[in-house]
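[audit] Reproducing an earlier prediction to check determinism. Same input, same settings, fresh worker. If the C-alpha cells differ from the archived copy the diff job will pick it up downstream; this log only records the rerun itself.
[audit] input (102 residues):
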Amino acid sequence: MPDTMIDGVQIHYNETGEGEPLLLIMGYGMPGDAWLGSLPFLNGFHSIYYDNRGTGRSDKPAGRSPRRSRRRAGGAQDHAGAILRWRGRTRDAESGPVHLAS
C-alpha cells in the first residue's frame, strides 16, 4: 500500500493487475477502495487507484475545509498526473497510453 508526496500532501494509492495502465479516480469524498468491487471486471489492465486528498489514508491538508478542497479545480487531475509521473508514465508517445475512469 504505497504512498507518495504530492504538493506537500501524502497521497495513498494501490495498484493491481497487469497490462496497460488504467487510472481510477473516485468521486469527491470517497476513498480509492470504493473501486474494489469493480476490479474483478478490469482484467487486462494495470489498475491504479488512490484516496483523494482528505479521504481514506491520504492526508487532509491543514487549514483546508472540504468545501474549499471541492472548489479546487483540477485537484484529482493534479494527483493523477503526479502519480503517473512518479510511476514513470508521461504523456509522450514512448510511454504508451494511459486509460482513465472516474
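[audit] rerun output stored. Observation attached for the diff report: The two ends are 21 Å apart (CA to CA).
[audit] end
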